[in-house]
Amino acid sequence: MASKASSKDIKTVEEKLQALYDLQEIDSKIDRIRTIRGELPLEVQDLEDEIAGLETRISKYNDEIGTLDADISAKKNAMVASKEAIKKYTEQQNNVRNNREYDSLTKEIEFQNLEIQLAEKRIKEYKSKIEDKKVVNDEAKEKLDARKKELEHKKSELDEIVAETQKEESELDALSDKAKEKIDERLLTAYSRIRGNARNGLAVVPVERDSCGGCFNQIPPQRQMDIKLHKKIIVCEHCGRVLVDTAIAGIEEVIEDVKPKRRARAAK
Questions:
Q1: At what angle do helices 99-180 and 40-93 cross, to 10 degrees?
Q2: Are residues 76 and 130 in the same domain?
Q3: For residue 172, pLDDT beyond 90
Q4: CATH number at residue 165
């Protein structure tokens, strides 16, 4: 038994074009509402990303400062150990039995003194690095505070705009979803693709004044006739948008009266 055709499959081309144009009208209204928000959503996202980056950077600086502080403590402990060793070796020198033992202890004392000097040098280096990192870290903290205040302001501004338009946008979103149900999947996919590639989001446009309503290139008379017949879906050969006639778009067609112009030229 043959399967029953869906309502999407049995629509005429004219009905399909009308459904597409109706969907385009709804989606264009949604686009206009979102345009009111301008760049605010992107600005908010950028600020959130920047804040996250600054927080990561500050955390990294704090970890590095903590590591340097631990290194300083380790060097200080090594200096204490070296001083104790020097004290011990000095006492042992008083009880040596020969020059060889004395010289050996002297070398140990010299070595420990060098270790103390090296530790002091490293501590100075670590402290200098800490100071540098603290300066950069403080700058990052100031920038973070400024960005947080800016984000708070931008979010407040965006929330205010969203609150004003949310009801209308929600209603239009519901209408858009309902309109999409009338269009077969293949056509809807093509519509979404064209809309995504178009700067102004227009995928379905009327032919007005013999031109494409999207890219404004001239449409040949024969092609205009084909569009008016509604026998097949026709796209603009220049921009790829779906073309509809003024009847589908519900626009009153403007026909220029060329006779008066001719008569005026003849009079001259």
A1: 170
A2: yes
A3: yes
A4: 1.10.287.1490
